[in-house]
Amino acid sequence: MEKSRAIRVLSPEVVNKISAGEVVERPASVVKELVENALDAGAGRIEIQVEEGGRRLVRIVDDGCGMGAGDLELVFAAHATSKLGAVEDLEQIATLGFRGEALASIGAVSQASILSRTAQAEQGYAVHNRGGEIVPPRAAGAAPGTEVAIRNLFFNTPARAKFLRTVRTELGHIEDLVTRFCLAFPEVGFRLVHDGCEVLQTPPGEDRRTRLESLYGRELSAALIPVSAAAPGARLEGFLAGPAVTRSHARDMLFFLNGRHIRDRILLRVVRDAYRDVLHHGRYPVVFLFMDVDPSAVDVNVHPTKAEVRWRDPKLLHMLVAPALRRALVQADLAQPVETGEHAERVRGAVESYLGGAGAGYEYGRRYGQGHGHVGEGQAELTQAGAPRVFQVHDSYLVCEVPDGIAIVDQHALHERVQYDRILRKLTEGGVVAQRLLVAEEMEVSASDLGLLEEGADLLRRCGFEWSVFGERSIALEATPAAVVREQAPDVLRDLLGLLRARGGNTGEIDGRTLFHEVAGTMACKAAVRFGDRLNREEAQALLEESGALERAFVCPHGRPTVLHLSFAELEKRFGRR
Ligand code: ADP
Ligand code: MG
Hints:
The chain is α+β, with helices and mostly antiparallel strands. 38% of the residues lie in helices and 24% in strands.
């Protein structure tokens, strides 16, 4: 339990430095301030009772350090806090509260009572505040800890009461808020009760994963992959779900900084970047990130409810968070074969029922092998998820037999995705495979291109390009990326120079990763077969095999699907067979 520190009124000098603001907007704001106080008091259990969406009553009971009679004298005074003394402390804020204005503002617009007792005291004390009229502390029986009851919020400010929404909406805000506290403080037990019914309950002493499971259920929790990273003065921990679990809203993308839920544009961008190649447009990932940084690395004193922060060094996020998310996503991708296993089971089941118990390997081989299956061979193909029959139509789509129906593949989109993954991997491993040209290819460039070629030389070499400068306006291309046909190599190089130009030539470590993604995207598009390219059967089959596209849903780097499935059930429905 925290040791109680005395409450003092802040000096005007400090008051002027803190960003004041309206903290009480709706019942959820009251809950937020009171729960933060309980957490700052070192509570291990916090109970939140609300009535009528919090409008009639918000009561918070905690087992924290409590307050003595002296503190209760000052508790409703403006700018009275035990958490901040001097201006310098503002640089080192480690508590959730520090402005000392919450209880004063809440007390001014409600009927508030506080009953509190420290562990050492023999008895507790109660104070009341009726819309600003304060009744001084009086002795009262109490358990150690604090109970704050806020009744009839906005009773004396009807204009503000009008802005309150329905009970459901207000309760929704409170529920979201308490859920976030539960995530940020898994070691604390929370209970939320509305009009006598328990809405949410988590036991104390949980770890993050168990807490996530208590809140979101086993299914989501099982799909979550841990994320972690550390740098001097900063630590990141968290969980994310791979692209198989997405949402139509951003509510399950939650960021916490030093125990505080924050909204942060930079973090949001870093997360979006990480998922860019694997999510469809309009879908949102599930990501819970918890960062702990040295309090001096951020300024939490920029927003009235502290929901936004200012990073003293935003590069920290790119260096710490972006690579950690990438790693976790790769892991999520590797975790896929588990699903493939289930998929294979389902396929086997579907095939068996389709064959109506005929069940012979021969039949299966006939249908899904190359059309010349022998007994036994088909089975082997099935268990290997075999080489399905495939046709190319209009030199653009591949139509394939799959065990539960037909798959139609967009050949360009799929190949682009395959190339993208390969190029990205090579880039991060050191470089893509280059091909020396027997005869160097001359390429005209502008003066500014020459500058970019020099600045971006390292990156461009990784991309498989080698050249020598040749006169003032041209270069001789000596090697080009092997994946790109020679005629297209100058175009690819120009695109890459375009990327470098857009970044002001910045190829530094910080956004090297993002740059790799852009580069891979540019190169993959050029390296992929096009719509209209004729593929022979071996090429088509190699593409399907390499991508594994028939076993798992892939999206192209632009977020479009690469494969459509038409199941037998769907076909039968369309043909009116059932
Ligand atoms: P702040 O949290 O910014 O200091 P508040 O107005 O929220 O300001 O609270 C004023 C002071 O009252 C706190 O600094 C703290 O000392 C005391 N206090 C409030 N709630 C509690 C609680 N639940 N347990 C112990 N002390 C509390
Ligand atoms: Mg507070």
